[in-house]
Structures are given as C-alpha cells and as structure tokens.
Design brief:
single chain, 225 residues, globular, six-stranded mixed β-sheet, alpha/beta
Length: 225
C-alpha cells in the first residue's frame, strides 16, 4: 500500500491472480496480469496521487477464486476501499475476422469483428470506475516507455444484477468484491473467447502479442491515475 495525498479519498486496489493450471505455464493466464500490476507499482509507487494505491496478488483463482474470497473476508481491508481493478489475461489479441467469440446472453456491441480490443467488465452499481476506462485512451500522463504506442480499443461492459443472469462474467477475482458491495472491474482479453492457448501448454511468452500487451498495460495505468 502507498498512501495518497487526499486522506478523504478512498483507496484503489490493483490486483491479479498468480496461480495457473497444471501443465500450463500461464504466460497470459495470468503472468500478464501480474506483470501489469508490477508495472503500476513501478510507475506510480513513487509518484503522489490523491488516492491511496493498494496492490494485491491472489492465489488459487483457478481453484474457485479462493484467494480473493479470503481477501474480501477480512472486512477491515474493505473499509477504505473505493474500487478494485482486477486483471486476468491481458496479453493476447487476434487480428482475423471472426476470431473473437462472445458469451451467450450478453448484449455486446463489439468495436470490431476481430479480437483486438481490451474488455473491461463492471457492475452497474459502480459505474464511475468502469467509466474511467472509457477515457483511458487519452494521452497518458505517465507513459510505460518513450515510444508512442497505439492503444487497443476498449469495450466496457456494465453488468446488471451482479452477474446473476450472465455467470460467464463472474469467472475471476473481481466477483468476490462485487458481492461485498465494492465496485470492481475485470480487465481481460476475454480468455477462451479469443485465445486458443487458454489453459494449454502453449500459453508461453512467445504467444503473447506484445503491442497489444503493452497497450493494455498503458490503459490500466491511465485509468488508475
């Protein structure tokens, strides 16, 4: 935790799970999310921001969100928490028409017919955090590197009723925060709806799409600040 300059402003948490499934190296799922959280710490950890910044790394996500459930079970951790940004697979893109799938029952207007966008899923009861990602493609105040990069499109998905009607939106560590009344977003490349390497031995660093990955990281940095 790094304290903010405004004591009245609630904290923002950035988190990711660090476990993977058996036989899969987990480069995208979820070393990519862990790497972005560490980059947030590197870029923002020594800079003053109004909000207190918290980082959390969860274990046993693949076993049923056990780490994040244990985290939110400690009520003291949630008292000053204004929202959580949870990353789960942010490193894969596909650029052929029709390579992106969508969950049934979820009304989605995709930004393209390819899998080249970053999805941000939030609950309708806490829209300000979700809305922060709609503005996250603006020129960054804190850049990952000096080279200007093209940031991927962002698809924001407001989910009603805490995902009761769309269980596919409850598959990661943001969900336990929703059920404790904390606004949280899931930032993702949409996992098995896009990548053929999901939970496979082929989920290795070589299959990360680097320009998409760095663009995704910059979007998270922009939204966090």
């Amino acid at each position: 935790e790094r304290p903010g300059t405004n004591k009245a402003a609630k904290a923002i948490l950035v988190g990711a799970h660090y476990d993977t499934v058996a036989l899969s190296p987990g480069a995208d799922d979820n070393a990519s999310g862990v790497a972005v959280a560490l980059e947030v710490a590197r870029l923002i950890g020594s800079r003053p921001t109004p909000r207190t910044l918290q980082l959390a790394f969860f274990d046993k996500e693949e076993a049923g969100l056990l780490g994040s459930q244990a985290f939110v079970s400690k009520k003291a951790r949630l008292q000053n928490l204004g929202g959580a940004i949870v990353m789960d697979m942010v490193g894969y893109a596909c650029y052929t028409s029709g390579c992106q799938k969508y969950p049934a029952g979820l009304p989605v207007t995709p930004p393209s017919d390819k899998g080249d966008f970053l999805a941000v899923v939030g609950d309708t009861e806490h829209l300000p955090l979700l809305n922060a990602f709609q503005n996250s493609q603006n020129i960054p105040s804190i850049a990952l590197n000096k080279e200007k990069s093209n940031l991927p499109p962002v698809l924001t998905l407001p989910i009603p009723l805490k995902g009761l009607l769309t269980p596919d939106t409850l598959r990661s560590d943001h969900a336990p925060f929703w059920y404790q009344g904390v606004g949280a977003v899931l930032v993702t490349d949409t996992a098995n709806l896009r990548t053929p390497h999901y939970h496979q031995p082929s989920d290795v660093p070589a299959t990360i799409e680097r320009s998409f990955f760095t663009g995704s990281a910059q979007i998270v940095v922009n939204a966090t600040t």
